[in-house]
Amino acid sequence: MNSDLSNEDSVIWRNLVQAHYAWTNAWFSFTNENVDRVALVRYALRTGELATAFTAARYMREAEILELFPEWLDWAIHSQNYFDSAFEIIMQLPHEWVLQHIEATAEPLLKGANHDEYSALLSLYSHLDYGLAMQLAQRMETHPDPEVQERGSEFLEELHTETT
Known about the structure:
Layout: H1 7-30, H2 37-47, H3 50-57, H4 62-67, H5 69-78, H6 83-91, H7 95-109, H8 115-128, H9 130-141, H10 146-163
Helix pairs in contact: 2-3, 5-6, 5-7, 8-9, 8-10, 9-10
């Protein structure tokens, strides 16, 4: 190693190189054709290895990502920390496919959902399809939770203001 580096810097560099080798080897194993990446990422999402799961998803085949659609939607609705990552994955999927599957996939996730979760889904819907977002907002207006009702009404009012 270069003598211009301190011992501490040399150790930091050596650790980085070793971690890179380990990551490269692990990555090659992960991308092997015989590996069930869907099962691995699903497991990671359930066990809290989220940063790795969301990073790996960027490099998975579209068919694999589609298989995990319920998980991505769940994270988009229920996680403020990973909303953006899940949102990004969903928005990169084929638009028509998402529109065909999102309502049926979201329905069980909304059982017991609160204001934040409905708001997250409404935000996602508004980026996908205004008609879908309007339907959800109208449904939210009849929800038993006053906060959910208020957010649905606000959205419809914002939409009305934008169109007039």
